[in-house]
Amino acid sequence: MVVPTFNSLSALNPVKLTYKYASEEKLASERYLFSNGIDYFQHNIFDNFKDAGLSKRNCLVLTDIKDLGTVFKNSSTNIEFGQIAGCVFLKHSNGKYLTTANGQIFIGGVGSKLFLNVIPNSDGSVSLKYGKTRFVEFVDQYPYPLRTSEETLIEELQYIRKFYIDFAGGKLSLKVKTREGFRFISAGVDRIVRAVGLELNETKVNPYYFDVEFITDSTLNHNFDPKTKQVQYFNDLDASDTRKTLDVKRQSIKNTNLLVSCPTTLVNLSSNEVNVNIALTKTNFTSFGTYNPFQ
Amino acid sequence: MSATFDFLSIKTVPSTYSWDVDGLPRGTSFPFVTDSSLLSLTSTNSEGVEYFGYSPFVSLSLSSSVGSISPSAVAVRRITDFGDYYNSESNIVVSPTLSNEAFCHNYIMPGLYSIKMTRTEFILVETQGGSVGCVYIQPLTDLERFPLSWQWYNFLCKSPSPYNTPVTWSQSEFQQPEQLVWSETYGPCYSLNVNTSQTSWTWNNVTCDLTANPLANTTTWDETKCDAPLNMRWQQISGSACQPTNTQYTLSANSQVFTKELYLRVLEIPPKCYLSTVNAPTSGISPYTVRLTPRYIRCGSFPIEKIVWDLGDGSPLLVQRRITPNTDPKFVYTNVFVTDWKDPRNYDIVHTYNRTSRSQFSFYPSITAYASSTGTSDCAAIVIGPLRLPEFQNEAVGILQNELTDHGKVLVGEVSNSVALWSINK
To answer: I want to staple B5 with a disulfide (CB 3.0 to 4.6 A). Which of A38, A244, B138, B258 is the partner?
Structure first.
């Protein structure tokens, strides 16, 4: 006698799908939970799907014609300056560069331009290195002048070489943690660089935002930009140079239906996400089997 | 009688001051605190007392008398250094007078300040007999450059003089060979008193006769033009005031320093952070869209420079800065602070909270507001929730197929014209 097993709706564990080949691309999805216990992931790729089924331990879904840009989650990441290392010159709001002479740091003057290597620390601060061996540090005694030094510091004094960067819109501020609290790096009328920044909205007594002249890249952009394109290569007799290469003559977006599959053996309670395979369908034939030339 | 340098008065904003609420601390109607008994504490410094006030405004005044002066002194100079490297333009105050003076300075930034006054008496070391010259001749043996004001009073001498060499603007710039700074535009006021004679200067004539009409020998700008009958040139004044070289004077300086160590403490009033919703309850049905506002954040001593938003559901942090507006679509500009459009508090955030089986019933967004110039911060949080789950209404749900696996069962279904997968444990 067959004894049926009853499960409540809340016993249904929603499965989230992802595309994981070479690198991981997240499928765009939203999770929905309702008061009656229904819990599921709605993946953009399956909206208005054509058909779905299970066969030989595989789940297969034929989707609608889809733009790949809507199928995957926008995972662009911008890693800003301060989180990545870089080399810069800093320019004061008066147009003069930060310079150094005899170990001191000035705004303008006869010293050489201060070429800074910005090195991120694990605690969110950065160290500023000058040359091969010298570091920029502040003297923790009011008025907190800056200097370059190559002395080795004990652990307790490492804080004098820690700077906290705020970078946005091409402007950068540096602050240090003094015994009186945070102070911003700037200079007064004598143009000696100290932690004496003072700005009151539009009144810049000692401006502490510097213009940054990047020697290295200012940001690192990590992105995934999926598109379904149909490309045409050069094959004309007249194009003697390009017909031997893979230069693209024309290209256009040609969204297609997608065939999504995943092994059901991967679906279990402990799996947070299940890998799927995605195949583009249709080439240059229409659904009726006639030739669909490149347009 | 010796010189003095003593406390005169102090003026500051009240401890409840707020940058944008109370406005700039100025004018006669502003409620300054001026009672020095309320603004002083016992201290272990040499004065035994420490004064205090609140950012962004503490005005400290000290009085000074020059005291007894040596009979051969020709000038006295008092320079007060208020020890303020933040408001440094007015940090050094110079007085070349002999009268009682009040030295004042406005402090803006928090800190503990020491003040120093240097009183310098310039004494004529040797004098020659005969008439006293009407102009000071710099000693030829000492090529030390005298302050800028002397350059203005130095006229070209017909006889060779090392100080006839002009100083160009670029030579006088910062860290250049002949660097000159305005703060050094002082000097012994030799021109005011030379023994018993007074010197008055007119446009192109030097006269030692104070009773002469000071305007008698004046010349207008138009009269100095080349095509004017009485045209004047700078070189014409050379030699008219240079004394015979056989008269040489030497000055020496005698300084006395008055120091008030750790004398003034300026305290910061921190900002107060508030976070609230706009026209909506904090609980509802998931997914719940709510508008969060920072407009009630209260400034302390300094304006708000940056606000960091943590939406409390794992979303990335969002930062709104005064210097560069963040145009993320979550931000909604409100223009609440119409006189300060760059204020980060002008931006609300609209966010949708989704309650899932793995999330809590409630979410706890928070903000941290940072003051300018000091980075002093305060934070505030709010509770969004509890969020109820939505009713499952009018949604088409169907199970298409299912399959037994080693782990249990896999179901393929359709919800709202989309495919969904579920697993059921064995």
So the answer is: B258
